[in-house]
Design a protein that fits this description.
The protein folds into two domains: about 5-135 and about 350-425, 3-Layer(bba) Sandwich (FAD/NAD(P)-binding domain); about 140-345, FAD/NAD(P)-binding domain. Helices cover about 30% and strands about 20% of the residues. The chain contains nine helices and 22 strands. The protein has helices spanning about 20-30, 45-50, 80-95, 180-190, 215-220, 255-260, 285-310, 335, 395-425, and strands at about 10-15, 35-40, 65, 70, 100, 105-110, 115-120, 120-130, 140, 155, 170-175, 195, 205-210, 210, 265, 270-275, 275-280, 330, 340-345, 345-350, 355, 375-380. Strands 1, 2, 5, 6, 7, 8, 21 and 22 form an eight-stranded mixed β-sheet that branches. Helix 1 (about 20-30) packs parallel to helix 3 and helix 1 (about 20-30) crosses helix 9. It is globular and about 90 Å long. The two termini are about 35 Å apart. This is MSMEG_0569 family flavin-dependent oxidoreductase. Keywords: Oxidoreductase. One of its GO terms (molecular function) is monooxygenase activity. It holds the Pfam family Pyr_redox_3.
């Protein structure tokens, strides 16, 4: 196929989620021709990779996609799965993006000053590319899973829907981040016996001193803090999210209380030897660390309240309601009655289709607010791309506006360069 017969766009956006469509929104305002390639359907993960009782863990008022803020009657509530999907459907209708659904991008490389994009729809060229496919591509499942008995059902958190999809018997949930803790709670509330392998995820309060903790942190400016001003700098991108829930109007997730109610807590899963699972003796330390974070956030709110002279509810410090008597390091699958395992240990990035020198040793893109060292190549929708809200509904609009402005500047530079070349060619020798 000759270059002249290949479709060419000013911009191609890879990914039709809220991040990609947010960029499309701003490019439309600029009148820039572009295409959005989505290998499934727009916003598909919100319907296909969430369990039935899934809800937001941040209040509805933080849903602030460009031109499409939350407009319901419960700004301090937490939308459920179908409500989130409806909100996103409304955003898609408002943006009306030039969307190519069911089109998988298979390869991108630079060629002659342009990006050549190979997809299931064919090839095209683009002056600039925005990667908006997120960073959660490959479900992580440890190699020891291969040696579990065939009688034990295994799924990843991305495939969990409800307790009824699992066979009767005890469920081992591996991982206690946002997904693991909420899935463990979902099973627990459904009356299932749960064994939870607790990791090092931190936790926070849902409500404190009369308000949602998110409201306090917003007032304190935490969500506006750019990554280069965070104490951990770019290291914050590797942090596990705090576990909390918006279920039933919102509440804390307290693993110690679950233990009082019969959930069995262990440390991190470390190995499988025959029929025996081995766990690190890390449970007590993990629970204590999560509580320190919980109390630390509340203490920061206390300080802010005092400094601002705000009238608020009484301050408090969380006191453990349960502590392990000792570390249990082994568990027999057969003797325990475990019939299913849910792996809740996250995802790995997979950008193998993008041929560009912009990745670090862990396969994550290196960028500054989504701008890479390759001119015309951008990323959006990643955790802490710029602020806490970059990977969420609350901050993606600012990121998208910034990326769109960078695209416009780069395009102007390309046009000036092209004009200079034409002027040189037209000048007499």
């Amino acid at each position: 196929m000759s270059p002249s017969s290949i479709p060419q766009y000013s911009v191609v956006i890879v990914g039709g989620g809220q991040a990609g469509l947010s960029v499309s929104h701003f490019l439309r305002q600029q009148g820039l021709d572009h295409a959005v390639f989505e290998k499934h359907s727009a916003m598909h993960s919100w319907r296909s990779q969430r369990w039935d009782n899934f809800c937001l863990v941040t209040p509805n008022w933080q849903c602030a996609l460009p031109g499409h803020p939350y407009a319901g009657d419960d700004p301090h509530g937490f939308m459920k799965k179908e409500q989130i999907a409806d909100y996103l459907d409304g955003f898609r209708a408002r943006v009306a993006p030039p969307l190519h659904e069911g089109v998988a991008v298979q390869g991108i490389r630079q060629e002659g000053g342009l990006f050549r994009i190979r997809s299931s729809e064919g090839e095209c060229l683009a002056e600039q590319v925005v990667v908006a496919s997120g960073g959660y591509h490959l479900p992580i499942v440890p190699r020891l899973a291969e040696r579990l008995p065939a009688s034990v059902a295994q799924i990843h958190s991305a495939d969990y829907r409800n307790a009824a999809q699992l066979p009767p018997g005890k469920v081992l949930v591996v991982g206690s981040g946002q997904s693991g803790s909420q899935i463990a709670e979902d099973l627990h509330l459904a009356g299932r016996e749960v064994v939870l392998a607790v990791g090092d995820a931190p936790r926070c309060a849902r409500f404190y001193r009369g308000r949602d903790v998110v409201d306090w942190l917003a007032d304190m400016g935490y969500y506006r803090m750019p990554v280069d001003q965070h104490p951990l700098r770019e290291g914050v991108r590797d942090n596990t999210n705090h576990y909390v829930t918006g279920r039933d109007g919102g509440r804390d997730i307290d693993l110690r209380r679950f233990a009082l109610e019969g959930m069995q807590l262990y440390g991190q899963l470390e190995a499988l030897e025959g029929d025996t699972l081995r766990f690190r003796p890390s449970l007590a330390a993990a629970l204590d660390s999560a509580d320190r974070t919980y109390n630390g956030i509340n203490a920061a709110i206390d300080k802010y309240i005092a400094e601002q002279g705000i009238q608020a509810g009484e301050a408090s410090v969380y006191q453990p309601v349960w502590s392990p008597e000792g570390e249990r390091e082994t568990l027999s699958l057969a003797d325990s009655g475990i019939t299913s395992v849910i792996w809740c240990i996250g995802f790995a990035p997979d950008f193998r289709w993008l041929d560009a020198p912009v990745f670090n040793g862990q396969g994550h893109p290196v960028h500054r607010r989504g701008v890479t060292q390759v001119p015309g190549l951008f990323f959006i929708g990643l955790p802490w791309l710029h602020t806490w809200g970059s990977g969420r509904f609350s901050g993606v609009a600012d990121d998208a506006a910034f990326i769109a402005s960078q695209i416009a500047q780069h395009r102007m530079a390309l046009q000036r360069e092209l004009a200079s070349v034409r002027e040189a060619e037209a000048s007499p020798a």
